[in-house]
Design a protein that fits this description.
Helix content is 22%, strand content 13%. By secondary structure, it is α/β, with parallel strands linked by helices. The strands form two sheets. It has a two-stranded parallel ribbon.
């Protein structure tokens, strides 16, 4: 069996790899992040843009498309990542 994990990084996005500096912003090339509210992941991270209704609709549609792609790729199951500061855990 094989599982596909899908998620949205939310306020925890634009961070370094865990083995570099855990949960720290990238040293360069950061992008705008979006979350349920304008609360940063930590005092060192950027303040995310608060998601609008239109943003949430787009994110929903992207989750649906990711699930469809996983189905077309014949994954046996999908895990929806909803913890550790990712978008869904921020609601």
């Amino acid at each position: 069996k094989i599982c596909c994990q899908i998620g949205h990084s939310g306020r925890k996005g634009s961070t370094q790899l865990g083995w570099e500096e855990m949960d720290a912003p990238l040293k360069a090339g950061n992008w705008e992040i979006i979350s349920a509210s304008p609360i940063p992941w930590s005092e060192n991270n950027a303040v995310p843009k608060e998601a609008t209704r239109a943003d949430m609709d787009q994110i929903r549609d992207e989750f649906v498309e990711a699930a469809r792609m996983a189905d077309r790729a014949n994954f046996d199951m999908i895990e929806l990542h909803a913890a550790h500061g990712y978008l869904i855990s921020s609601f």
